[in-house]
Specification:
By secondary structure, the protein is an alpha/beta fold. The protein has 12 helices and 14 strands. Helix 8 (about 305-320) packs antiparallel against helix 11.
Length: about 425
């Protein structure tokens, strides 16, 4: 990648297959392939072809895709290398809703692609907002039924706007799991994350704003304005009192009354994202606000992000769980290469970027032990996630002040786009 030309020359590399550490797996298994942008939900029975982010407009598109897939299957012996590219076609915008004008699809194509929806079908976009560490990612995972967003007990774990798709027979909710709203922006990274939060809220049909029920009630108008901005037409907004399992029922009732009285929202619902309590109430509220219309995506799709994105997120989660203080916040994880190998383990090459050599030394640890532990824990979860064996190679490099490098941040997905190759 061009932006990485200034990286320090020294590099530490550890292949993880040599280390017999046993780490508790935390990711739910998913089934999908390396040749599609979409993640597919194994719990839904709808069978769809692999498709691009926009709906097919003609039968010729379907035929062309089928021929392309057949050619790929005949060439399985050729290993595919996935690398960074500056080509705009290698990025997918998360700021624009896909076209759901399906007028040119006949009944067979509509059913085959999973768009078979009646007149009462509802669909739309939902933004999850709130301060850091209030449980937005846990709620998103509960609603989708799969772990897509990484979760730790440290604030600001989520950096990207993660698109999660929750579908039923008569609805489709496209959830934006966003970074925690920051009132103080210390780096360009913080500013770009907040731009993504506001963009998600502007594009949303309704907004879920989460607060921590275990903490003292506080007015959220300023924080809500930070997240939504000041749109002329404010979307319907639900305030969710999360973590109600940490307080007594009497306290829940008092805080519910306080938030209802002192916040400018449409409704307040107490939930426990950790245990799933109240999640159905949240879904019902969302469905009451979404417009009628067909699905944006086939019904067995659960995310538009490619698997390389989730591989990087898994590794970042392990960094948050293993290291303390500033280390998790100065680390950027990039997947440099992803090779699918039919007769061997898939090969994944990853780099961890830090800002100073002293941070690199901490990540690697004495005699490389810290990096070995991190790599093994990450590999086990990556294998659970991909449902296949992988050879994971991790390098640690230094890129000074990467959190202030706007060009690098945009290329790394903080500008509202994600790489799809």
């Amino acid at each position: 990648m061009k932006n990485l030309a200034s990286l320090a020359a020294s590099t530490a590399t550890f292949p993880t297959h040599q280390f017999p550490f046993q780490i508790q797996h935390s990711f739910f298994p998913l089934r999908f392939t390396t040749r599609t942008t979409f993640l597919r939900n194994p719990h839904l029975s709808c069978q769809t072809r692999q498709c691009r982010s926009n709906a097919f407009s003609t039968k010729q598109d379907l035929i062309a895709l089928q021929e392309e897939e057949e050619e790929e299957e005949e060439d399985d012996d050729e290993e595919q290398r996935v690398s960074y590219s500056d080509d705009d076609t290698s990025f997918l915008s998360l700021s624009e809703k896909p076209d759901r004008n399906l007028g040119l699809l006949d009944d067979y194509e509509t059913e085959e692609l999973g768009y078979d929806c009646g007149p009462n079908h509802r669909s739309g976009y939902v933004a999850l907002l709130g301060k850091p560490n209030v449980g937005k990612s846990t709620l998103a995972n509960q609603m989708v039924g799969q772990k897509l967003s990484i979760v730790t007990d440290k604030p600001q774990t989520t950096r990207h706007r993660i698109l999660c798709i929750c579908s039923g027979s008569d609805y489709q909710m496209v959830l934006y799991d966003t970074p925690g709203v920051l009132q103080e922006k210390r780096h360009k990274l913080d500013s770009m994350m907040m731009q993504n939060v506001r963009s998600a809220a502007v594009n949303a049909d309704c907004v879920l704003f989460l607060v921590d029920a275990s903490k003292a009630p506080e007015k959220i108008d300023e924080v809500l304005e930070q997240g939504i901005g000041n749109p002329k037409d404010k979307p319907p907004t639900l305030l969710i009192m999360n973590k109600k399992d940490l307080i007594k029922p009497g306290e829940v009732a008092k805080k519910l009354e306080w938030y209802t009285k002192f916040t400018d929202v449409d409704e307040v619902i107490p939930v426990s994202s950790k245990y799933g309590h109240g999640v159905e109430d949240v879904k019902n509220w969302i469905l009451s606000k979404l417009p009628n219309g067909p699905a944006y995506y086939p019904k067995d799709i659960i995310s538009e992000h490619p698997e390389r994105f989730f591989v990087a997120e898994i590794i970042r989660e392990k960094i948050f769980l293993q290291y303390r203080n500033e280390i998790p916040y100065v680390c950027q994880v990039n997947v440099l290469s992803y090779k699918t190998r039919p007769k061997a383990k898939d090969f994944i090459q990853v780099e961890i970027l830090v800002e100073r050599n002293s941070q690199k030394i901490i990540v690697i640890g004495k005699e490389g032990k810290a990096l070995k532990l991190l790599a093994t824990a990450a590999r086990l979860d990556v294998e659970d996630f991909l449902q296949k064996k992988v050879f994971l190679e991790i390098q640690v490099k230094v890129k000074e002040n990467w959190r202030q490098d706007e060009g690098f941040l945009k290329h790394s997905g903080y500008g509202g786009q994600i790489g799809v190759v």
